Every structure is written in C-alpha cells, then in structure tokens.
Amino acid sequence: MRALSLVRCTPLFLATLLGFSPARAGEPVVIVHPDSKVQSLTRDEVINLFMGRQKRLPSGLVASPVEQAEPPATRARFYHLLVGKDLPDIHAYWARLLYSGQAQPPRQAPSAEEVLEFVAANKGAIGVVDGARVDRRVRVVLDLGK
Amino acid sequence: MSLRMIAWITLVALALPLTAQEADCGLKVSGFGTLGLALNSSDRAEYVREPTQPRGVLRSLNPSLDSRLGLQVNQNLGGDLSFVGQIISKYRFDYTFKPDISWAFLSYKPTSSIQARAGRLGFDVFQIADTRNVGYSYLWVRPPVDFFGPLMLSSLDGGDLTWTTPLNEGLNLRLKVAAGRTASIDKVPFGNEGGYVPLGGSKLFGAVAELDWRDLNLRLSFARAQPSEKFPAPITDLQDGLNAFALLLNDPRLAQQARGVDFQENCFRYLSAGVNWQGGPFRVEAVGAQVRTGDGPIPDLKSGYLSVGYREGAFVPYFLASRIVSDPHPLYLGALPTLGPQAAALAEGVTAFIQHQRANQTTLALGLRWDFQPRTALKFQIDRIEGRPNDVMLWLNVRPGWEGKATVGSVTLDFVF
User: Fold this and answer.
1) Could you tell me if the ipTM is greater than 0.90?
2) Which of the residues A7, A11, B93, B252 could staple to B189 if both were Cys, CB 3.0 to 4.6 A apart?
3) Partner-chain contact A96 B128, CB within 8 Å
4) How far apart are CA B120 and CA B224, in angstroms?
5) A31 has which bridge partners?
6) pLDDT tens-digit map of B309-322
7) Hey, what domains does chain B have and what are their CATH numbers?
C-alpha cells in the first residue's frame, strides 16, 4: 500500500518541483496553499469539504472552498468526476443546505487566475481549477482527471 | 396589499445587485422563489397546498397556491459565529402575501462536528420540512400534500444542537435535537374573513438521526408538540354543548369527548422514517410518517410517499405517489342524536368537526423538471387525487356533490438567486 502510493506520488512530486502540471487541460484538480500542511486528500475528504459536510482541512485549518465559476464546463466536469452529479443537482443540493441554514456553498471565483490568487493568499483555502492552469504558487492534492 | 407588495418587490430589487456576492464584511444576500399556476378539474372542493392557505384552487388558473418568494442574509460574525435571517412572502391566512420572518438565528460552530443554533429557526420534523418553500431544491412542483398537508408547524423559537461525525470513509452520521415553542407566524384560517387558529406557542421537542453513505441517505425523526391555544369560538361552543348535555344526562363519557376535541388536550407526536438515494441518473425517495394525537376523538394519521425521477440531461421526468389514512378514534355521542333537534344538531356539529380532522386519500402524480438555465427550473405536474368525500381535512369549502376525486395540473418556475 505504502509502496503503491509512493509510486503514484513521485511523478506528481517531481512535476510540481519542476513547475509543471501533470494534469491535462480541461481536467479539474484540487489545490491548496503550500503551507497548509496538507500533502494529499482522498476523494471522500474532498467530497466532505466541497459538499458542506466538513469545515476543516485534515491539518485542522478552517477550510475555505473556492471554485472556478467560468467556464461552467470546468465545474461541471469536477462534480461529475467527484460525485457523478450534474450542475443542476449540485445547485439544488446547495439550495437545500443554504436555505435550511446548515452550510454555505463554496465561494465562486470568476476565473482560474482568481482561484489561484485566492488559494495562494489563504492558508485554509482549497480550490478547484483547470489542471492546465496550476503553477508553483499552489499544491495539487487530488487530480480527479487521472 | 398592493402597497406592501410594492415595498416587498422594491426590497428584493434592491437586494438583487448584492446577490451572489460575498463582500469582505462576510455578508451574503441570497434568495429563492416560485411563480406557479395551478388548475383543478373540480369545482366542488378547493385544493390547498398547506393548511395556512385561506382559499384553494378551483376550475380557474390560480397563482397563489405555489407562488412564493424568500430572501435570506448570512452574516459572518467572525470566528465560529454567524447570523442567518430569512423572510418569506406567500399566500397566508389573511388573504395577503405579507412577508413573515421565518428565521432569525445565531449559529455557533466551534468545531467541525458541532453546530448550535438559537433564535427563530426551521425544524425538519420530516425530511425537507424546513425547505418546503424552496421549490428549486426538490423535484416536484410542491411537496406531496398528502404528506406535508397536515404538518402545520414551520418555524420554531428556541434552539437546536447538531452533531456530525464521519464514521468511516464516505459514511457520515448526523444527530440533532431541537426544543422551543412554535413561532407565532403559523396561523390556520378559520371561519370568517381574517379569522384564524393560532398555532404559535406550542411546546415542541424533536430529534433527528441521519446517516449519509455516498449517494444514500437514511433518516429517522421524532417530534412532540403540545399546543397551548384553545380552539376558537365555534369549536368551544361544541364543547360547551357537550358539557351541558353531559351534566344533564349525567354521562361522564360525553364530558370526556368535550375535552378530547380541544387542541390543548391533544399532544401531537410525529414519527418519521425515510430513505433517499441519488445514484447516477436516478433520484429515489421513500418516506413514511405517523402522527399520533390524544385519547379523544381527533384521529391519528399515517402518511407516506414514493418519488422516482430519472435525469436525462436538463430533463428529469418523475413519478410521485402519496397516501394518507386516518385511524379514526371512537366518537361517543351517547343519547344525543335521539334527544330532539337541539341535541341532534350538536351531534351533527361534533361529527362534522371530526370529519374535518380526517384525511383518507391517494395521489398519483407525473411530472417533468426542466433545468433550462443555471439556477432556474421549469416544472410541469399532473396530480390525480382519489379519496373519501367525507374526510375533508386537506380540502377547503367542500360543496354538495363532492365525490373526493380531482385532477390538478400545475406549472411552476423555480429559481434561486
């Protein structure tokens, strides 16, 4: 198990070091601040954070989820890969949570650059962007497109 | 009414530029609404969505049944503290759309797993009961009337405590307890124009246990409400009549019936279990509930619904079946019907009152939800209702010739902003 995750993580680690993104264009990746003390996240952890079930990162920091609102295709692809749901279902899900006062939906940033800026500026931030836009200001913790 | 409506629309228009914006001060303004039209095939009984509506739908297009508008503010107060306020405008007991403050509470979330709320808040006695007015959040044009129709409680002045914990990968448990008094905004129209039975002030206690596993949600809930108000004059007249004859005939069972028709003598206990599964394109929901009353003649209720939808792109065709049955409690009238016209009229009055507390009907519905643009859905639904003509709890102004059968067609435009 450990050997397997090492094998899986090494190329990602090297690529990040070299400043390359391992993800393909159009495929969403989950990113955090490099100082968040989070190296990687499981799919279930990301589901809990983006679906309003958990409010803190595994390192204990209060999480601030942020999404790339435009183009909608990136968000749609993210939720399709993460929970197998279409955007109308996600919007209806959040209407239920927001208007029953349980939780608030992730912050919407208009562009990939603004997601990167927000994540780079906030230690507790966790964002979703088009994998092709990732740079060394942030750390990739889950690549759903793989 | 028109002046208030204008003020209300202006308020929403002012709020619109703020929406979907979370300023740095942590304030977020958002809202939800439904524009609806409904038509009933019958002119003999008015179809209503909730018991707080003073008029229902007959054989002409009716916009008041489903139309509503809500506005919500979420204010982050720093740290773990936040405020949520919500106002709702919908057709209410006094024939107007005057907005009511549905929610105003402080939320404290000291850890990831604990949330405490205090103030005026919604309580989900049944699944989705606290978002019944947010049409966009569910599949149908309205929550099944056979199930939610008898549920009069909406807001609670008090507090609740929620504990959420992940049990395993993808498995989450949520436990919630709530206590307080039902808010004064719940008023059921009664008798003449503007008259009503207040439901506020009832002592309420409730608990919910919920289990989430991937696409599956299981839910069990319990609530107990002790009304504090007496019924209004026409009902207390029946009680006085029963008491008078109990004395006259020396029949203590009649006096017992007199107490039994009072709200205050009936502690309402709600029990509900439900399952919700959203796997792939399927949306399946099955919920059952039981409402128990006191020892008097006011009947217990059992109800449930099954909903199946299938998403195909922007379209979700769905099927919805719901049913409610009343377990009649024995009604004792002693020698009343045989004691001349006055006593017989009293016996008739008591019987009619009990019929109004009974519901026995089944609804089959077919519908289509069309998410034609982000955060906006158009829905079409046809309901076929078949029930016993004398058990009229869920109907208004029943006229002679009512056979307990109706078809209702509805269109709604649901949105969030």
Assistant:
1) no
2) B93
3) yes
4) 18
5) A127, A140
6) 999 999 999 999 99
7) 2-416 (2.40.160.10)
